[in-house]
Amino acid sequence: MEDLTTNHAHTSEQTIVVLVENKAGVLARVSDLFARRGYNIVSLAVAPTHDPVFSRLTIVVDVASAPLEQIVQQLFKLINVVEIAVLAPDQSVERELLLATVSVSRSSRNEIVELVDIFEGKILAVAPDSLTVSLDGRPTKLDDFEALLEDYKILELQRSGRIALPKNGREVRRLRAV
User: Fold this and answer.
1) 67 and 21 in one domain?
2) In angstroms, rounded to a whole number, what is the distance separating the alpha carbons of residues 164 and 178?
3) Residue 52 domain-assigned?
4) What angle is formed at CA 90 by the lines to CA 87 and CA 95, rounded to 5 degrees?
5) How many CB atoms lie within 10 A of CB 81?
6) What is the residue range of 87's domain?
7) Total tally of structural domains belonging to the chain
8) What phi and psi, each to the nearest 5 degrees, are found at residue 166?
9) Which of 32, 59, 85, 174 counts the most CB atoms within 10 A of its CB?
């Protein structure tokens, strides 16, 4: 198997995209594998692909909890895994969605609306004392937005988890079981 120890992001997080057969129980087996082995999942997103036979799991793992090569080898032991790709941040397009409901007063409403505009987000719902907003983008953009929202009273906040695809024309380390 190819050496996977290079971490392009100089961080302990690595994005792995796993193509699996779209069958009941596959997600449970993947999450059980991570739990049994003590691998830390930073983010997990799963959905069917354009071909309903397959689903794509985008897993951001903390490679400080286990070497990437070990995680990949264990994933290949699962029978429904078809292909695994390791995506470097500089060679992939990563996005995440954030939804937040923020308490607003008359004086803070315009500030929050302006903040949402600056970050190219959307206001989804308006109430006399709150706003629900959405923002999509790179995880670091959402981190920055979330940090600025902390100056206000966040009533609820949910992030979708990262999804990623290789940039067009970029080589990707696509791995198959050996």
Assistant:
1) yes
2) 25
3) yes
4) 70
5) 22
6) 13-92+169-175
7) 2
8) -65, 145
9) 59
Query: For residues 106 and 146, what is the distance between their CA atoms, to the nearest angstrom?
Result: 21
Residues 17 and 86 reside in one and the same domain: yes
Tokens 């008359």: give the residue. 106
DSSP state of 91: G
Confidence (pTM): 0.80
Distance CA 102, CA 138 (A): 21
Are residues 66 and 103 located together in one domain of the fold? no
pLDDT in tens, the chain (178 residues): 344 444 334 468 899 999 999 999 999 999 999 999 989 999 999 999 999 999 999 999 998 888 888 899 999 999 899 999 999 878 889 999 999 999 999 999 999 999 999 999 999 999 999 999 999 999 999 999 999 999 999 999 999 999 998 888 766 666 665 4
